[in-house]
Amino acid sequence: MSTKQFPNNFLWGGATAANQLEGAFDLDGRGLANVDLSPVGEARLDVITGKRKMFHFEEGYFYPAKESIDFYHRYKEDIALFAEMGFKTFRMSIAWSRIFPKGDENQPNEAGLSFYEEVFKECHKYGIQPLVTITHFDIPMHLVTEYGGWRNRKLVDFYGNLVTVLFKRYKGLVKYWLTFNEINILLHAPFMGAGVTFEEDDDLLLKENMVDFVSFSYYASRAAQAQKTNQSEANLLASSDNPYLKTSDWGWAIDPLGFRITLNDLYDRYQKPLFVVENGLGAVDIPDEDGYVADDYRIDYLRQHIEVMRDAITEDGVKVLGYTTWGPIDLVSAGTGEMKKRYGFIYVDRDNYGNGTLKRFKKKSFNWYKKVIASNGSDLN
Questions:
Q1: CATH of residue 70
Q2: Is residue 231 part of a domain?
Q3: 315-344 pLDDT, tens per residue?
Q4: Would you call 278 a catalytic residue per the annotation?
Q5: Is 0.90 surpassed by the pTM of this model?
Q6: Is 380 domain-assigned?
Q7: Catalytic residue among 58, 278, 289, 315
Q8: How many angstroms separate the CA atoms of 80 and 132, rounded?
Q9: How confident is the model over 287-316, as pLDDT tens digits?
Q10: Does 4 map to a domain?
Q11: Domain that holds residue 51
């Protein structure tokens, strides 16, 4: 038990994205989205980086976002599990095409609005604050095919219409909003991120409408090398191997010190409270015959990162509002489309190609994170 304390109102929780867990891609009026069209397998990287056009489902490919882990029908079960861990907040995103199926309609889809309203109410039933990303790698395909995506300034108005509807409908239900997830990914995966071409007065608009806090994701550090030998292609971005650090099953450097440095850099730069909205370890989890996973490697990763976050707060004076791990339940990987790249405290019986019962099982890390939250981060053992 540590004597160093997180703030009393610190928001512990977990983070997800609509396309990676909801499923129900064509139910209740939802339209087709770019993220639906990213297959698992070798073609995925070319599709999400825009090197290969895939504007409709093609034979011979499996598209994991169609069903994902079926949160659309199982959200009550999953939120109850989050509540059992003691979540103070649940980060999730809105599927734009569930609210405006094409994206350019004047009136929203009531079925989509009702779904998210019920999800938010379910969170509040357990005292969980929704932390909602408006756009998480998600855009209606109609806006891509008819307008060219974010290269067309008309999308600013379509997005504004979406935001207006969301803010009015969910006033009192959602306190914390994020605009775009990892907007820098637009440079590296333009089809998945949707692309954004910036105009003369946009910087002034941003300056005059400053965010209340800065949210960011941290998984790993990257290394550079003058000769560019020993390059790793992990996670869209090539980097040099760091011989001083261990790596995950997918080659991501495990670097908690880099996390503390990042916290300090961002706070020094912006002088705004920070919110860590993604941090976690993707690993191959092997359940026993009862579905139990002894994921001590995940516990070790999270413990190290929570420890340095606590040090950044208590020793360095960094203000952090909350911490949401990616993802609290196994879901489809954004980068690879795999299910075997698991992050969750909750195991979902599903493989890379949609086989499995979708039944949920608690991993060892489930009770560990429950203890962390109950102790407000003082007990990390």
A1: 3.20.20.80
A2: no
A3: 999 999 999 999 999 999 998 999 999 999
A4: yes
A5: yes
A6: no
A7: 278
A8: 18
A9: 998 889 999 999 999 999 999 999 999 999
A10: no
A11: 11-220+255-375
